[in-house]
Amino acid sequence: MLGVSEVTLRQWSDSGKIRVFVTPGGHRRYNINEIKSLVSSGVAAVSRSDLSTELSNNLQPHYEIGHAEMNFYQSNVKFDDKVLHQLAVEGRKTLKLLTDYINSPDDYENLLKTAEDIGNEYGEILLGANLSLPEAVQSFVSHRAPVISKIMSVLDKNESVVTEDFVDAVPHIDNLLNLSLTAMVKYYTDHI
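The structure assignment produced for this chain is given below.
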């Protein structure tokens, strides 16, 4: 109704910015005038476009993780600069996939196919580098963490209104990452 998500309302009521009445059934009820007043007070709104910007500017942690992985793996793993470059390309494709979804959610079906393709490419690269399946999964998950962390840091900004479109985007982003991971694991099982 006001473009304010349930997450934001809970944050506001938990921090005492607005009053809440909890029904005997555990449902929260708010005074609409208090919400309107807080929204009109100039509280910044965080939307899909803000999330897109945050994710596209999130390359540094992935670079650091990649270099740490290169130094971590055993000598039988061919995790060199070439593999690191290939993974960087796939990482940028993954971030682009997520921002494409955020900016064009109506194209979700095509993006699901792209997520699967990216997962297959990760599988090919990591299997070619002699990573075991558990090592490949760990590598993928370690790069997933900064994405989830970035989303959570945006959500944790208590001074911001988190819009419904932002909240709606999060499970779809998670699903795209899950699909890529599943495709990577399937690539391994099909090629070992």
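Interim note for the steering committee: The helical segments are 6-14, 32-40, 48-56, 60-72, 81-103, 108-128, 133-155, 164-191. Residues 164-191 form the longest helix (28 residues).
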